[in-house]
Design brief:
The protein is an alpha+beta fold. It contains eleven helices and 25 strands. Among the domains are: about 1-35; about 225-450, no CATH class. The chain is about 30% helix and about 30% strand. It has a four-stranded antiparallel β-sheet with strand order 11-19-18-12. Strand 23 and strand 24 (about 430-445) form a beta hairpin.
């Protein structure tokens, strides 16, 4: 039997290890060679640019795929939002933003191709295990970015304002606002490197500075710090002019003080709501139809106020329903609207309390909210209910039109049903309950008109 010395065994083991290492290196080189051959002149698989897959494409193909992506990134408007204001800018125009397509495609092509062989293989295995995304690099004018941030800051920033009295109005306190310019610049840069449209709406980062004497302090001093009622309606799907008119009418009644026994007239405070009064064209009801007219949207303010007044248990002196009830008036339930038309229809109510009250109308988060403050320690619980609702079906009118094809029909006016309804206010105080009939309203229908051959 032949025995090997310890030295000979070590030499044999070293040779084995060397052979194994040589085999591994050979396999690695062979594997890389095969990989390079399969994807020669192509970007490796599972690689994306700003979320768009370009793996497996050659450089020219990748450029074609990425060109519209780049156009979207640099030409899509960004919106800087604060409260109800939105400021728009376009990166290519306002920041001279640009993406070097050829340079970015070269960067993508070099993924898992740069560095020594071991780094390349490590990177390739990483890409194969989980996809790799490279955000396209946007170049821009840094000074223009700073100028834009400063411009936004000048438009948004404001000093804090204390609450004060001005005639019959409470002028509300206002928080001071200071824009964090450095943080704003960072958020803009982040949006520039994104292909996702949800990143194109940015909340402007601000620091809030509180006023020294706020609205609550003033209300407490006036002894009207109790919130008697509050009611909100949605501004969803309202066009720009309508929202403008709602804001303007709201500002006219906001902070209004009404003395004990005083009658409030909506028309007297808001006025005719015509072009000369600063109002714009919007949807109004005239002659039983929805049409464009100055002051469209004002009735949403009067209707929201009406519901707030009802919940405060104040006395209604005058109120009118609209002639029709449709999408443009559906911000309140049927039977709870308050139409106003200067010189003809008004909303009037009386402050039947022993002390003065104040009205506040605010717009926030797509809602118009009206609240009433006063002093009413034994205020009853109020509930508004509607009963005996009847739906009046609209007529279908068919008109002949020889210009249409045979059997062709075109609806030129959608039908809107009419309604009859009674609205009550239920006043609960302890064990006592009182039911008050507020109105019996009739809404006309609008016929559907169809043209046919």
């Amino acid at each position: 039997m032949k025995y090997c010395s310890k030295k000979e065994k070590n030499q044999i083991n070293l040779r084995k290890i060397f052979i194994i290492l040589l085999l591994i290196i050979t396999l690695i080189i062979l594997g890389e060679g095969i990989d390079l051959f399969l994807y020669r002149n192509k970007i490796f698989p599972k690689i994306s640019a700003s979320g768009v897959l370009v793996g497996g494409l050659n450089k020219e193909e990748a450029k074609q795929v990425l060109q519209p992506v780049i156009s979207k990134i640099i030409n899509s408007p960004r919106f800087l939002v604060f409260e109800e204001e939105s400021f728009e800018f376009i990166p290519a125009d306002d920041l001279e933003a640009n993406i070097d397509l050829s340079k970015e495609v070269d960067r993508l092509y070099l993924i898992a191709r740069s560095g020594n062989i071991f780094k390349r293989i490590k990177d390739r295995l990483a890409v194969q295990r989980s996809s790799y995304n490279l955000n396209l690099k946007v170049e821009f004018d840094n000074q223009k970015l700073k100028d834009l941030a400063k411009k936004i800051g000048n438009m948004v920033e404001r000093a804090p304002q204390n609450a004060y009295l001005e005639g019959n109005y409470i002028r509300e306190s206002q928080e001071g606002i200071e824009v964090n310019l450095e943080e704003l610049e960072k958020e803009i840069i982040t949006s520039l490197n994104s292909c996702d449209e949800k990143d194109y709406h940015l909340n402007i980062p601000v620091t809030v500075i509180l006023s020294q004497y706020n609205t609550k302090d003033l209300l407490k001093e006036l002894d009207i710090s109790q919130e008697l009622s509050i009611y909100s309606t949605s501004l969803k799907n309202r066009d720009g002019n309508t929202i403008y008119n709602i804001k303007l009418a709201s500002e006219k009644i906001n902070g209004r003080i009404i003395k004990a026994g005083e009658v409030f007239s909506f028309n007297q405070i808001v006025g005719p709501a015509e072009k000369e009064d600063g109002f714009k064209e919007g949807t109004i009801i005239a002659n039983g139809k929805f049409v464009n007219g100055y002051g469209g949207g004002v009735c949403q303010v009067s209707s929201t106020l009406y519901n707030t007044v009802l919940l405060a248990n104040l006395s209604i002196i005058e109120r009118h329903n609209h002639s029709i009830y449709g999408e443009a008036t559906a911000y309140v339930p049927v039977g709870r609207d308050a139409a106003v038309f200067y010189g003809f229809k008004d909303l009037k109510f009386k402050n039947n309390l022993s002390k003065k009250i104040a009205i506040f109308a605010r717009i926030s988060d797509g809602m118009l909210t009206v609240s009433i403050y006063g002093y009413y320690p034994d205020k009853p619980e109020i509930e508004i209910v509607s009963k005996d609702k009847k739906i009046i079906d609209y007529q279908i009118i068919r008109e002949k039109d020889a210009g249409l094809n045979k059997s062709q029909e075109i609806t030129i006016q959608e039908g809107i049903p009419g309604y009859k309804i009674k609205t009550y206010r239920i006043i609960k105080k302890g064990e006592e309950e009182k039911i008050e009939l507020l109105s019996e309203d009739t809404y006309n229908y609008i016929p559907m008109i169809i043209k046919e051959n």
